[in-house]
Amino acid sequence: MGSNNKIYIIDVTNRDGVQTSRLGLAKLEKTMLNLYLNEMGIYQSEFGFPVTRHEVNYLNANLRLAEMGVIKPMLLQGWLRAIKEDVDKAFDRTKVRHVNLSMSTSEQMLFGKFQGRKSRQDVIDMMVEAVHTAKQRGALTIGVNAEDASRTDLDYLVEFALAAKEAGACRLRYCDTLGYDNPFTIYERVYYMASKTKMPIEMHCHNDLGMAVACSLAGAKGALDAGVDCYINTTVNGLGERAGNADLVSTILAITKSKDFGDRYKLDERINLCCAWRIAKYASLCFGVPIPINQVAVGANAFAHESGIHVDGALKDRRNYELFDFEELGRGEPEIIETGRQITTGEYSGIKGFRNVYQRLEIEFKDDKEAEMILDLVRYANVHTQKPLTDDELKFIANYPEIAREIMTVLP
User: Fold this and answer.
1) H-type alpha helices, 100-225
2) Among candidates 138, 135, 206, 207, which has minimal Cα distance to 164?
3) Where are the domains of the chain?
4) Would the pTM count as exceeding 0.90?
5) Helix (H, G, I), strand (E, B), or coil: what is residue 144?
6) Cα Rg for the chain, rounded, in angstroms?
7) What SS3 class is residue 53?
8) For 175-211, what is each residue's pLDDT tens digit?
9) Under CATH, which number does the domain 6-278 receive?
Protein backbone atom coordinates (compact mmCIF):
# COMPACT_ATOMS: atom_id res chain seq x y z
CA MET A 1 0.00 0.00 0.00
CA GLY A 2 2.60 2.55 -1.10
CA SER A 3 4.75 1.72 1.92
CA ASN A 4 7.99 2.38 0.05
CA ASN A 5 6.77 5.61 -1.50
CA LYS A 6 6.66 9.09 0.00
CA ILE A 7 4.82 12.38 -0.07
CA TYR A 8 6.95 15.42 -0.92
CA ILE A 9 5.90 19.06 -0.59
CA ILE A 10 6.34 21.53 -3.44
CA ASP A 11 5.41 25.05 -2.38
CA VAL A 12 4.07 27.33 -5.11
CA THR A 13 3.59 30.56 -3.16
CA ASN A 14 6.13 32.38 -5.33
CA ARG A 15 4.27 31.36 -8.48
CA ASP A 16 0.59 30.73 -7.74
CA GLY A 17 0.39 32.76 -4.52
CA VAL A 18 1.66 35.90 -6.24
CA GLN A 19 -0.96 35.47 -8.97
CA THR A 20 -3.65 36.21 -6.40
CA SER A 21 -5.75 39.15 -7.56
CA ARG A 22 -4.84 42.40 -5.76
CA LEU A 23 -1.79 40.85 -4.08
CA GLY A 24 1.91 40.48 -4.85
CA LEU A 25 5.39 40.17 -3.38
CA ALA A 26 8.61 42.13 -3.79
CA LYS A 27 11.58 40.10 -5.05
CA LEU A 28 13.33 40.36 -1.67
CA GLU A 29 10.19 38.97 -0.01
CA LYS A 30 10.07 36.07 -2.46
CA THR A 31 13.70 35.35 -1.64
CA MET A 32 13.05 35.33 2.11
CA LEU A 33 10.17 32.90 1.59
CA ASN A 34 12.55 30.59 -0.31
CA LEU A 35 14.97 30.71 2.63
CA TYR A 36 12.20 29.86 5.11
CA LEU A 37 10.85 27.07 2.90
CA ASN A 38 14.34 25.61 2.64
CA GLU A 39 14.64 25.72 6.43
CA MET A 40 11.34 23.83 6.69
CA GLY A 41 12.67 20.99 4.54
CA ILE A 42 10.37 21.65 1.58
CA TYR A 43 11.38 19.55 -1.42
CA GLN A 44 10.96 22.25 -4.06
CA SER A 45 9.87 25.86 -4.45
CA GLU A 46 8.16 26.90 -7.66
CA PHE A 47 9.97 30.19 -7.41
CA GLY A 48 8.81 32.16 -10.40
CA PHE A 49 8.44 32.73 -14.13
CA PRO A 50 11.68 32.45 -16.17
CA VAL A 51 10.06 33.97 -19.26
CA THR A 52 8.95 37.13 -17.39
CA ARG A 53 11.71 39.75 -17.74
CA HIS A 54 11.25 41.42 -14.35
CA GLU A 55 11.78 38.03 -12.69
CA VAL A 56 15.14 37.28 -14.34
CA ASN A 57 17.53 38.95 -11.87
CA TYR A 58 15.63 37.58 -8.88
CA LEU A 59 15.61 34.06 -10.35
CA ASN A 60 19.32 34.05 -11.21
CA ALA A 61 20.23 35.54 -7.83
CA ASN A 62 18.30 32.81 -6.02
CA LEU A 63 19.98 30.18 -8.21
CA ARG A 64 23.30 31.67 -7.10
CA LEU A 65 22.19 31.24 -3.48
CA ALA A 66 21.51 27.59 -4.32
CA GLU A 67 24.97 27.20 -5.86
CA MET A 68 26.48 28.72 -2.69
CA GLY A 69 24.60 26.21 -0.54
CA VAL A 70 22.46 28.89 1.13
CA ILE A 71 19.30 27.41 -0.41
CA LYS A 72 20.01 23.70 -0.19
CA PRO A 73 18.83 20.96 -0.63
CA MET A 74 15.53 22.52 -1.73
CA LEU A 75 15.20 22.68 -5.52
CA LEU A 76 14.16 25.86 -7.32
CA GLN A 77 11.73 25.25 -10.16
CA GLY A 78 10.47 27.61 -12.83
CA TRP A 79 6.93 27.55 -14.28
CA LEU A 80 6.47 27.73 -18.04
CA ARG A 81 3.82 27.23 -20.64
CA ALA A 82 4.46 24.00 -22.50
CA ILE A 83 5.50 25.89 -25.62
CA LYS A 84 8.92 25.45 -27.27
CA GLU A 85 9.48 29.18 -27.65
CA ASP A 86 8.88 29.78 -23.94
CA VAL A 87 11.27 26.98 -22.98
CA ASP A 88 13.99 28.49 -25.16
CA LYS A 89 13.44 31.95 -23.66
CA ALA A 90 13.64 30.53 -20.13
CA PHE A 91 16.99 28.84 -20.76
CA ASP A 92 18.33 31.85 -22.66
CA ARG A 93 17.51 34.24 -19.81
CA THR A 94 18.09 32.19 -16.67
CA LYS A 95 20.15 29.31 -15.27
CA VAL A 96 17.05 27.41 -14.21
CA ARG A 97 17.45 23.62 -14.33
CA HIS A 98 14.15 22.42 -12.86
CA VAL A 99 10.98 23.31 -14.77
CA ASN A 100 7.26 22.62 -14.78
CA LEU A 101 5.59 22.84 -18.20
CA SER A 102 1.88 23.62 -18.23
CA MET A 103 -0.75 22.74 -20.84
CA SER A 104 -4.55 22.80 -20.68
CA THR A 105 -6.13 19.39 -21.30
CA SER A 106 -9.90 19.53 -20.73
CA GLU A 107 -12.58 19.80 -23.41
CA GLN A 108 -13.72 23.01 -21.73
CA MET A 109 -10.26 24.54 -22.22
CA LEU A 110 -9.87 23.19 -25.76
CA PHE A 111 -13.02 24.98 -26.85
CA GLY A 112 -13.44 27.73 -24.25
CA LYS A 113 -9.79 28.80 -24.07
CA PHE A 114 -8.19 27.65 -27.33
CA GLN A 115 -11.46 28.31 -29.20
CA GLY A 116 -11.20 24.95 -30.98
CA ARG A 117 -7.90 25.90 -32.68
CA LYS A 118 -6.09 22.96 -31.04
CA SER A 119 -7.07 19.30 -31.06
CA ARG A 120 -6.27 16.80 -28.33
CA GLN A 121 -3.37 15.53 -30.43
CA ASP A 122 -2.09 19.09 -30.95
CA VAL A 123 -1.97 19.54 -27.19
CA ILE A 124 0.07 16.36 -26.74
CA ASP A 125 2.41 17.25 -29.62
CA MET A 126 3.10 20.75 -28.23
CA MET A 127 3.76 19.35 -24.76
CA VAL A 128 6.13 16.67 -26.07
CA GLU A 129 8.05 19.22 -28.14
CA ALA A 130 8.40 21.44 -25.05
CA VAL A 131 9.67 18.52 -22.94
CA HIS A 132 12.21 17.55 -25.61
CA THR A 133 13.39 21.17 -25.82
CA ALA A 134 13.80 21.43 -22.05
CA LYS A 135 15.87 18.23 -22.00
CA GLN A 136 18.03 19.48 -24.86
CA ARG A 137 18.60 22.78 -23.03
CA GLY A 138 19.84 21.03 -19.89
CA ALA A 139 16.82 20.60 -17.63
CA LEU A 140 17.54 18.21 -14.76
CA THR A 141 13.91 17.59 -13.84
CA ILE A 142 10.77 18.25 -15.87
CA GLY A 143 7.25 18.16 -14.53
CA VAL A 144 4.28 18.36 -16.87
CA ASN A 145 1.06 20.07 -15.78
CA ALA A 146 -2.36 18.97 -16.96
CA GLU A 147 -4.35 22.14 -16.37
CA ASP A 148 -8.01 21.47 -15.55
CA ALA A 149 -7.21 17.77 -15.09
CA SER A 150 -10.29 17.28 -12.92
CA ARG A 151 -12.51 18.10 -15.93
CA THR A 152 -10.40 16.13 -18.41
CA ASP A 153 -11.45 12.74 -19.81
CA LEU A 154 -9.53 10.23 -17.70
CA ASP A 155 -8.28 8.00 -20.52
CA TYR A 156 -7.06 11.05 -22.44
CA LEU A 157 -5.29 12.20 -19.27
CA VAL A 158 -3.50 8.84 -19.13
CA GLU A 159 -2.53 9.19 -22.81
CA PHE A 160 -1.21 12.70 -22.11
CA ALA A 161 0.77 11.48 -19.08
CA LEU A 162 2.29 8.52 -20.94
CA ALA A 163 3.40 10.81 -23.77
CA ALA A 164 5.02 13.13 -21.21
CA LYS A 165 6.75 10.18 -19.53
CA GLU A 166 8.08 8.83 -22.83
CA ALA A 167 9.37 12.30 -23.75
CA GLY A 168 11.36 12.48 -20.50
CA ALA A 169 9.09 14.12 -17.92
CA CYS A 170 9.57 12.86 -14.36
CA ARG A 171 6.06 13.49 -13.00
CA LEU A 172 2.55 14.59 -13.96
CA ARG A 173 0.88 17.47 -12.16
CA TYR A 174 -2.83 16.80 -11.69
CA CYS A 175 -4.32 20.29 -11.55
CA ASP A 176 -7.74 20.59 -9.94
CA THR A 177 -7.75 24.08 -11.39
CA LEU A 178 -11.29 25.00 -10.34
CA GLY A 179 -11.42 23.04 -7.09
CA TYR A 180 -14.01 20.82 -8.79
CA ASP A 181 -12.92 17.44 -7.40
CA ASN A 182 -13.89 16.04 -4.02
CA PRO A 183 -11.76 13.62 -1.96
CA PHE A 184 -13.62 10.58 -3.34
CA THR A 185 -13.39 11.44 -7.03
CA ILE A 186 -9.80 12.63 -6.87
CA TYR A 187 -8.70 9.44 -5.11
CA GLU A 188 -10.27 7.28 -7.81
CA ARG A 189 -8.88 9.36 -10.68
CA VAL A 190 -5.34 9.62 -9.33
CA TYR A 191 -5.25 5.94 -8.39
CA TYR A 192 -6.34 5.04 -11.93
CA MET A 193 -3.77 7.35 -13.53
CA ALA A 194 -0.92 6.20 -11.30
CA SER A 195 -1.80 2.54 -11.85
CA LYS A 196 -1.87 2.96 -15.63
CA THR A 197 1.23 5.16 -15.99
CA LYS A 198 3.42 4.17 -13.00
CA MET A 199 4.38 7.84 -13.01
CA PRO A 200 4.75 9.99 -9.86
CA ILE A 201 1.77 12.30 -9.46
CA GLU A 202 1.82 15.91 -8.29
CA MET A 203 -1.34 17.25 -6.65
CA HIS A 204 -2.31 20.86 -7.35
CA CYS A 205 -5.63 21.59 -5.66
CA HIS A 206 -7.57 24.84 -5.47
CA ASN A 207 -9.92 25.74 -2.65
CA ASP A 208 -13.04 26.95 -4.49
CA LEU A 209 -15.19 24.47 -2.57
CA GLY A 210 -13.06 24.52 0.59
CA MET A 211 -11.56 21.06 -0.01
CA ALA A 212 -8.01 21.78 -1.24
CA VAL A 213 -6.23 20.15 1.71
CA ALA A 214 -8.64 17.18 1.83
CA CYS A 215 -8.34 16.60 -1.92
CA SER A 216 -4.54 16.86 -1.75
CA LEU A 217 -4.44 14.09 0.87
CA ALA A 218 -6.93 11.93 -0.98
CA GLY A 219 -4.95 12.31 -4.20
CA ALA A 220 -1.73 11.48 -2.38
CA LYS A 221 -3.37 8.34 -0.97
CA GLY A 222 -4.41 7.35 -4.49
CA ALA A 223 -0.87 7.76 -5.83
CA LEU A 224 0.78 5.91 -2.95
CA ASP A 225 -1.79 3.11 -3.00
CA ALA A 226 -0.92 2.65 -6.69
CA GLY A 227 2.78 2.41 -5.83
CA VAL A 228 4.21 5.78 -6.90
CA ASP A 229 5.50 8.85 -5.07
CA CYS A 230 3.26 11.89 -4.65
CA TYR A 231 4.13 15.58 -4.61
CA ILE A 232 1.64 18.00 -3.03
CA ASN A 233 1.52 21.66 -4.04
CA THR A 234 0.92 24.17 -1.23
CA THR A 235 1.02 27.90 -0.62
CA VAL A 236 1.79 29.73 2.60
CA ASN A 237 -1.49 30.64 4.34
CA GLY A 238 -3.34 29.04 1.42
CA LEU A 239 -3.08 32.20 -0.68
CA GLY A 240 -3.67 31.76 -4.40
CA GLU A 241 -6.01 32.57 -7.23
CA ARG A 242 -9.66 33.04 -6.26
CA ALA A 243 -10.24 31.07 -3.01
CA GLY A 244 -6.61 29.96 -2.86
CA ASN A 245 -4.67 26.70 -2.73
CA ALA A 246 -3.89 24.01 -0.17
CA ASP A 247 -2.33 25.71 2.86
CA LEU A 248 1.26 24.66 3.58
CA VAL A 249 1.01 24.20 7.34
CA SER A 250 -2.51 22.69 7.26
CA THR A 251 -1.43 20.13 4.66
CA ILE A 252 1.63 19.00 6.61
CA LEU A 253 -0.38 18.72 9.83
CA ALA A 254 -3.17 16.82 8.05
CA ILE A 255 -0.63 14.30 6.77
CA THR A 256 1.12 13.86 10.11
CA LYS A 257 -1.69 14.34 12.67
CA SER A 258 -4.94 13.11 11.12
CA LYS A 259 -6.23 9.71 12.18
CA ASP A 260 -4.16 6.80 10.78
CA PHE A 261 -2.78 8.76 7.80
CA GLY A 262 0.71 9.45 9.16
CA ASP A 263 1.01 5.87 10.39
CA ARG A 264 0.29 4.42 6.93
CA TYR A 265 1.93 6.95 4.60
CA LYS A 266 5.38 8.52 4.73
CA LEU A 267 6.05 12.23 4.52
CA ASP A 268 9.46 13.46 3.36
CA GLU A 269 11.55 13.13 6.53
CA ARG A 270 13.21 16.51 5.96
CA ILE A 271 9.97 18.36 6.73
CA ASN A 272 10.21 20.37 9.94
CA LEU A 273 7.48 22.72 11.18
CA CYS A 274 9.97 24.65 13.32
CA CYS A 275 9.41 27.91 11.45
CA ALA A 276 5.75 27.41 10.51
CA TRP A 277 4.70 30.32 12.73
CA ARG A 278 7.45 32.57 11.38
CA ILE A 279 6.73 31.90 7.69
CA ALA A 280 2.96 32.35 8.18
CA LYS A 281 3.48 35.67 9.96
CA TYR A 282 6.00 36.81 7.37
CA ALA A 283 3.71 35.98 4.43
CA SER A 284 0.86 37.78 6.19
CA LEU A 285 3.04 40.88 6.55
CA CYS A 286 4.29 40.78 2.96
CA PHE A 287 0.94 40.13 1.29
CA GLY A 288 -0.85 42.48 3.66
CA VAL A 289 -3.43 39.79 4.43
CA PRO A 290 -4.18 39.15 8.13
CA ILE A 291 -4.12 35.55 9.32
CA PRO A 292 -7.73 34.55 10.10
CA ILE A 293 -8.34 34.14 13.82
CA ASN A 294 -9.37 30.51 13.27
CA GLN A 295 -6.58 29.59 10.82
CA VAL A 296 -5.26 26.08 11.38
CA ALA A 297 -2.28 26.05 13.77
CA VAL A 298 -1.23 29.69 13.27
CA GLY A 299 -4.48 31.60 13.89
CA ALA A 300 -4.76 33.58 17.13
CA ASN A 301 -7.41 31.17 18.42
CA ALA A 302 -5.75 27.92 17.33
CA PHE A 303 -4.66 27.25 20.93
CA ALA A 304 -7.13 29.52 22.74
CA HIS A 305 -9.74 28.21 25.20
CA GLU A 306 -12.58 30.16 26.79
CA SER A 307 -15.56 27.96 27.68
CA GLY A 308 -15.45 26.61 31.22
CA ILE A 309 -15.41 22.94 30.29
CA HIS A 310 -12.65 23.40 27.70
CA VAL A 311 -10.48 25.58 29.93
CA ASP A 312 -10.79 23.15 32.82
CA GLY A 313 -9.92 20.22 30.57
CA ALA A 314 -7.00 21.99 28.88
CA LEU A 315 -5.50 23.03 32.22
CA LYS A 316 -5.66 19.46 33.51
CA ASP A 317 -4.08 18.04 30.35
CA ARG A 318 -3.81 20.05 27.15
CA ARG A 319 -4.20 16.84 25.13
CA ASN A 320 -7.86 16.96 26.18
CA TYR A 321 -8.52 19.80 23.75
CA GLU A 322 -5.33 20.22 21.68
CA LEU A 323 -4.37 17.76 18.95
CA PHE A 324 -0.74 18.92 18.69
CA ASP A 325 1.67 21.23 20.54
CA PHE A 326 2.20 24.87 19.64
CA GLU A 327 5.95 24.44 20.27
CA GLU A 328 6.14 22.20 17.19
CA LEU A 329 5.22 25.21 15.06
CA GLY A 330 7.86 27.52 16.50
CA ARG A 331 5.17 29.60 18.20
CA GLY A 332 6.91 29.43 21.58
CA GLU A 333 5.94 31.94 24.19
CA PRO A 334 3.63 34.91 23.51
CA GLU A 335 5.28 37.67 21.50
CA ILE A 336 6.92 40.42 23.52
CA ILE A 337 6.17 43.94 22.33
CA GLU A 338 8.97 46.34 23.15
CA THR A 339 7.98 49.68 24.63
CA GLY A 340 9.91 52.92 24.85
CA ARG A 341 12.48 54.09 22.31
CA GLN A 342 12.59 52.15 19.05
CA ILE A 343 15.02 52.84 16.21
CA THR A 344 14.00 51.55 12.79
CA THR A 345 15.51 51.71 9.32
CA GLY A 346 13.86 53.17 6.26
CA GLU A 347 14.53 54.81 2.91
CA TYR A 348 15.65 58.04 4.65
CA SER A 349 17.64 56.51 7.53
CA GLY A 350 20.96 57.98 8.67
CA ILE A 351 24.12 56.12 9.52
CA LYS A 352 23.86 56.45 13.34
CA GLY A 353 20.40 54.99 13.63
CA PHE A 354 21.34 52.37 11.06
CA ARG A 355 24.38 51.26 13.08
CA ASN A 356 22.21 51.09 16.20
CA VAL A 357 19.79 48.69 14.49
CA TYR A 358 22.55 46.40 13.24
CA GLN A 359 24.32 46.39 16.62
CA ARG A 360 21.08 45.10 18.11
CA LEU A 361 21.25 42.28 15.55
CA GLU A 362 24.87 41.64 16.62
CA ILE A 363 26.21 42.48 13.16
CA GLU A 364 29.30 44.68 12.87
CA PHE A 365 30.88 46.30 9.83
CA LYS A 366 34.59 46.27 9.12
CA ASP A 367 34.67 49.98 8.28
CA ASP A 368 32.52 53.04 7.48
CA LYS A 369 32.63 52.29 3.75
CA GLU A 370 30.99 48.89 4.24
CA ALA A 371 28.41 50.37 6.61
CA GLU A 372 27.49 53.09 4.07
CA MET A 373 27.17 50.49 1.31
CA ILE A 374 24.83 48.31 3.36
CA LEU A 375 22.84 51.41 4.42
CA ASP A 376 22.31 52.27 0.75
CA LEU A 377 21.01 48.75 0.08
CA VAL A 378 18.71 48.90 3.11
CA ARG A 379 17.29 52.20 1.84
CA TYR A 380 16.68 50.63 -1.58
CA ALA A 381 15.10 47.60 0.07
CA ASN A 382 12.68 49.83 1.95
CA VAL A 383 11.68 51.49 -1.33
CA HIS A 384 11.53 48.02 -2.94
CA THR A 385 9.17 46.47 -0.37
CA GLN A 386 7.41 49.67 0.77
CA LYS A 387 7.42 48.21 4.28
CA PRO A 388 9.67 48.37 7.35
CA LEU A 389 12.31 45.66 6.99
CA THR A 390 12.23 42.62 9.24
CA ASP A 391 15.28 41.50 11.22
CA ASP A 392 15.79 38.55 8.87
CA GLU A 393 15.67 40.84 5.82
CA LEU A 394 18.25 43.15 7.42
CA LYS A 395 20.52 40.19 8.19
CA PHE A 396 20.17 38.84 4.65
CA ILE A 397 21.19 42.18 3.12
CA ALA A 398 24.22 42.42 5.41
CA ASN A 399 25.30 38.84 4.70
CA TYR A 400 24.69 38.81 0.93
CA PRO A 401 24.86 42.45 -0.26
CA GLU A 402 25.68 41.74 -3.92
CA ILE A 403 22.91 39.14 -4.24
CA ALA A 404 20.49 41.55 -2.52
CA ARG A 405 21.49 44.20 -5.04
CA GLU A 406 20.76 41.85 -7.94
CA ILE A 407 17.40 40.76 -6.47
CA MET A 408 16.26 44.37 -6.15
CA THR A 409 17.40 45.37 -9.65
CA VAL A 410 14.43 45.35 -12.00
CA LEU A 411 15.02 46.71 -15.49
CA PRO A 412 12.21 47.64 -17.91
Assistant:
1) 107-112, 120-136, 154-167, 183-197, 212-225
2) 135
3) 6-278, 351-407
4) yes
5) strand
6) 23
7) helix
8) 999 999 999 999 999 999 999 999 999 999 999 999 9
9) 3.20.20.70
